[in-house]
Amino acid sequence: MSVLKNKRSVSSMEFYHNAIVLRREITMLLLRDFGIKDKVRSIKALYGVQGMEPEDEKKFREIIEKYELTAKIIEEYPAWLIDKMRNNIMNILHSMIMNITQANTIYPVCESEFYDRRNFQNHAIGNCEQLLQEMQYIISIIPVDAQKYMRYVDTIEKEIALLKGWRKSDNKILKKIKETEAKKTEEAKKTAEEKSTSQTDEKQV
Predict the structure, then answer these.
(1) Which residue stretches belong to region Disordered (predicted)?
(2) pLDDT on residue 1
(3) Is the entire prediction scored with pTM above 0.90?
């Protein structure tokens, strides 16, 4: 059962908005760093290489422009490895969004629906943990500036916190469901007792 839009506040949907931003930003990161499938990369890709002094970078640019260099520099890592890393992350991002979407389309009115929703929430949190592991792996393999990746790590950790907060807030839904079920059980029991008493009285008459 879907949640009515008028029951969803902007703040309660922050976990979703942050996930969308996270997916977009990491996708752009992959396009910048791992988007080239060939084993060669233009020499211009070395602009801003880690540790290069601003003055050296300026001279480097001037040399390339002066001599119109068109040479190619062989990448240190094969295309298949870059593709594999990129695909792994894209798949995890896709799963994360799908799990969040699935969970958010369920507004539980019984315990089974509550646990279906929680299962998707747990999987989404697991996807975030997988992203952290993949990011750490990439940093350990590819010579990138780890500090530049911290903004993505921070966003992932924020998403984990938001998802856990969302999951925790659902406990009140479960409490309400249990109270409703207990009330129904009590009413059914009372009705059964009244019916039994009525039947006994009729027999005595």
Answers:
(1) 177-205
(2) 43
(3) no
Q: CB under 8 Å to 128, separation ≥6 — which residues?
A: 96, 156, 157, 159, 160, 163
Q: How far apart are CA 107 and CA 86, in angstroms?
A: 34
Q: Please check the confidence at residue 67 and state whether its pLDDT lies above 70.
A: no
Structural domains in the chain plus CATH codes: 5-37+77-195 (1.20.1440.60), 40-74 (no CATH)
Alpha helices in the chain (DSSP H): 14-34, 54-67, 79-104, 111-141, 146-169, 171-204
Report DSSP letters for 166-187, one per residue: HHHHTHHHHHHHHHHHHHHHHH
Asked if 167 and 118 touch (Cβ cutoff 8 Å), the reply is yes
Alpha-carbon torsion 176, 180, 181, 186, what sign? Answer: positive
For 99-152, write each residue's pLDDT tens digit: 999 999 999 999 999 999 999 999 999 999 999 999 999 888 877 777 888 889
